[in-house]
Design goal:
globular
Length: 209
Amino acid sequence: MAYEPIARGTATARPSGVLGPAARVKAAAGLMLAWVGLLWLIEALDLASGHALDTFGIQPRQVGELRDIIPAAFIHFGYAHVAANSVPLLVLGFIAALRGIARFLGVAFVITVVSGLGVWLVAPAHTNTAGASGVVFGLFGYLLVRGFADRRLLDIAVGLVIAALYGSILGGALPTASGVSWQGHLFGLAGGVAAAFLLRERPQDGLIQ
């Protein structure tokens, strides 16, 4: 930790454009509620259209399917599928977004692209993969290592709590269950770890805070 002297009677001003704690909570909660709400709306439209939106899933190693890497993260195969992803996405996304919406969106983009590319490259032939679980695994990985990448003790502690609460999901990154895209989970996890270092925000003095 480090400090600098402040003259008695003076106050530190928050840098322009930096949100206070209450505003960060409100922004993070609003974003994730909107995201999860959008997933449910898309699934309702998918069912109403006779599953026409399922074509936005990823079919591996077909060049034309590369355009579906991002849309696939918003498509699900039924309400049970979207329900299984909603709570962990809401919780992990909210915690990750507290550090800033712009950074969070960058993290989510990296995770989605890495997870989707992994599915496109190694998923079994003649399959169609979709769902937000790759993002969920990515956010899990991101939160696990963000504190080490940023050198923030608080975020290291948050990562340990996340590991204790959600560590059991790691089994989903192994090829142990049929019909489950362990490829999307594994590459999503890798994307989250990569995003933590690609988009890290270390103190200027390099000291742990």
